[in-house]
Amino acid sequence: MGTAETLVLLAITHGAPSLANRAGIMQLVDAVADALPGHDVSIAFLDVQHTDLADALAGFVTGEHAVILPLVLSAGFHMRTGIAKGLERLERIGAELADELGPDDRLVQVLAERIEDTGLTAADSVVLAAAGSSDARAVRECFETGRRLAVRLGRPVTVGFIAAAMPRLHDAIDMVRDVHPGTRVVVGTYLLAPGSFYDAALNAGGDLVAAPLLLPERGAPAELVDLVLDRYRGATER
């Protein structure tokens, strides 16, 4: 495939995205567009609960040399089924599906910074909250991110899932407290932007909850912009 001229970023949501979610994602979209002058960079928010992803994809490709890049941290059920099938049904030749964002050390760096921003101390325990998936590979990818985060922080990290996988986040927090009575539990959120999953993490019982990777009031971290550009270039070089 030659040089792509169109990049469609897909924000995969579970329900209608909140204003904060949209604002956080747009910080990333704007930064990517600034880094790709002369390219058509757009964003589509897809509610996986109410949208046929395979049907929706065809409408996002307006010409040849298009890259569709799902803004997902791990490639769960929706990406491996609906999105992949959608590409198979595209009539135009030239559309490419970019890889998922994680696992990647750039994500881990931003995760660590968000956790450290909570005021993390040496006595605290860390639980990493991930959205969860029924796809076994996606679950393994979340555990791999937890392993990398433990190396980056220099301490154990327990992974808990908000939905669809075990252990559930509240159970992971309780388990850490059972093993380390009296410890303060700091929850890192392996989530791209604020939304319903982040709200669930806030209410799972942790003492402190770190912010997600993208925040409406901040510019997109350079690490995330660089990661998206890498995934885009990887798709164009196939």
Count of helical stretches: 8
Overall structural class, as computed from helix and strand content, comes to alpha/beta
- Supply Rg: 18 Å
Sequence of strands across the biggest β-sheet: 2-1-3-4
H and E order: EHEHEHEHEHEHEHEH
Mean pLDDT: 89
Descriptive key words:
238 residues, alpha/beta, 4-stranded parallel sheet, 8 helices, 8 strands, 18% strand, metal-binding, CbiX/SirB N-terminal domain-containing protein, lyase, Sirohydro_Cobaltochel/CbiX
Q: What do these coordinates show?
A:
The protein is an alpha/beta fold. 42% of the residues lie in helices and 18% in strands. It is built from 8 helices and 8 strands, in the order βαβαβαβαβαβαβαβα. It is globular and about 60 Å long.
Helices and strands, with pairings:
Layout: E1 6-13, H1 19-35, E2 40-47, H2 53-60, E3 66-70, H3 77-89, E4 96-97, H4 105-116, E5 125-130, H5 136-153, E6 157-161, H6 169-179, E7 185-190, H7 196-202, E8 208-209, H8 222-236
Parallel strand pairs: 1-2, 1-3, 3-4, 5-6, 5-7, 7-8
Summarize the structure.
This is CbiX/SirB N-terminal domain-containing protein. The chain is α/β, with parallel strands linked by helices. Helices cover 42% and strands 18% of the residues.
